[in-house]
Design brief:
Layout lengths: L7 E3 L5 E3 L48 H6 L4 E4 L24 H10 L3 E4 L15 H15 L4 E5 L10 H22 L6 E4 L17 H19 L10 E3 L8 H6 L9 E6 L4 H4 L14 H12 L7 E6 L7 H17 L4 E5 L13 E2 L4 E2 L2 H11 L1
Parallel strand pairs: 3-4, 3-10, 4-5, 5-6, 6-7, 7-8, 8-9, 9-10
Antiparallel strand pairs: 1-2, 11-12
């Protein structure tokens, strides 16, 4: 999610490792800091670290070409957070640089078996590009390998650009940002153009004025540049051929914000084709994301109903499908409240046809944003009650 890193990461039910993590929130105060405490990452003992062998280009059929119809097939999703979006280490070693284990097919199979039918794969690309914006082949191969873990077992897979520090929605950076963004998506689109409709591209993640006072709010100028990002992304993918002419593409408002002014400012490019809007919302904020906030869930808070009321009036009522690309609540040893919160959240989302994707950064305990659900080492769930609540509400 956002560039801020989570403080702690648990690698098993009894082994805790403090590390960096995700920091997504659209309602986050603009004066918040992005500190991170990093310890030695745990290295995976898996043997899957080699690049995927070269394989033939896929030529899968596009069976569902309407974005609205596609979204209707989605139940609930899971983010592979703080993994391929990690920005430490060197080369393909970046995947484990924030402390999570190397991703394996059994991990993703377990996610599917639990009932999640959407896999979002956050990927940081900027640290794997040369001065001409060419992506390292080994990194592209590894991303494809992980995408295939979900795609080949029938999941909908969302592939994005994440934790990118090279795009900054200011006029003085816009020209070079758009050049790099176009070059990047040319390469991603070419690699994946033969995949069917279950692979979805998401252009950018939480584009915002990083480190500035209006970071999470934005202004008219920064929102306009974010719309230019969307236009470049759409035009690049659509021009790439193959299934990309009809592939569903996800567009992100400024900061992926759920604030009405940012939702309303998002412009769908002309002749964009199949478009889905991506929104991130950790609500109620004090309960769900603020580590210094409350551990008590208030069902009468009003933030959840307001979110979906706004999404419905701005997008759904205008035939534009929406996915909540990131949501969740941090672990504050408050399972009962988290169960009630996720039940209310997903029930409200389902009423207007909006699938939601839980942000899982692997972290369970400590002082940071502990969204971890999957124990990736032991291949069990840290909190069955929360997972069961997710599935029950999403049915």
């Amino acid at each position: 999610m956002k560039f801020k890193r989570v403080i702690s990461l648990v690698m098993s039910a009894v082994l805790a490792v403090t590390l960096c993590g995700c920091n997504n929130n659209n309602n986050k105060p603009s004066d918040s800091s992005d500190g991170a405490s990093v310890s030695e990452p745990v290295q995976s003992t898996d043997s899957n670290s080699e690049s995927t062998p070269e394989k033939e280009q896929r030529n899968d059929p596009m069976n569902i070409t309407s974005a609205k119809e596609l979204v209707a097939q989605m139940k609930v999703g899971w983010n592979l957070g703080n993994t391929l979006d990690s920005t430490g280490g060197d080369g393909v070693g970046a995947e484990t640089s924030w402390g999570n284990l190397l991703t394996t097919k059994p991990m993703i199979d377990l996610v599917k078996k639990a009932g999640f039918n959407v896999l979002r794969v956050p990927v940081s690309w900027g640290t794997h590009m040369d001065e001409d914006y060419v992506v390292d082949e080994a990194w592209m191969d590894r991303v494809q390998e992980v995408v295939d873990y979900g795609y080949d077992n029938g999941m909908y897979v969302i592939l994005n650009t994440h934790h990118e520090e090279w795009y900054m929605p200011k006029e003085e950076f816009a020209e070079e940002n758009l050049k790099q963004l176009g070059k990047l998506w040319e390469q991603i689109a070419e690699r994946f153009k033969g995949y069917g409709e279950r692979l979805i591209f998401e252009g950018v993640n939480e584009p915002r004025l990083r480190g500035e006072g209006a970071e999470w709010v934005g202004d008219a100028a920064s929102r306009d540049i974010v719309n230019k990002y969307a236009e470049t992304f759409v035009n690049t993918v659509r021009a790439s051929g193959g299934n990309n002419a009809e592939r569903a593409l996800m567009l992100t408002p400024y900061a992926a914000s759920s604030m009405p002014e940012n939702l309303k400012a998002l412009k769908i490019p002309e002749n964009a084709g199949n478009i889905i809007v991506s929104v991130h919302a950790y609500l109620p904020y004090s309960f769900a994301l603020d580590t210094k906030g409350t551990d008590v869930y208030d069902p009468n808070n009003g933030e959840i109903p307001n979110l979906f009321r706004n999404i419905k009036s701005i997008f759904i009522d205008n035939e534009i499908p929406v996915i909540i690309g990131e949501f969740g609540s941090v672990n504050k040893n408050n399972t009962e409240g988290r169960v009630q919160c996720v039940t209310d959240y997903l029930t409200a989302a389902k009423e207007i046809g909006v699938p939601c994707i839980w942000w899982d950064n692997g972290a369970l305990v400590g002082n940071g944003e502990n969204f971890g659900l999957l124990n990736r080492r032991d291949l069990v769930w840290f909190n069955d009650d929360v997972v069961n609540a997710i599935m029950s509400a999403a049915e």
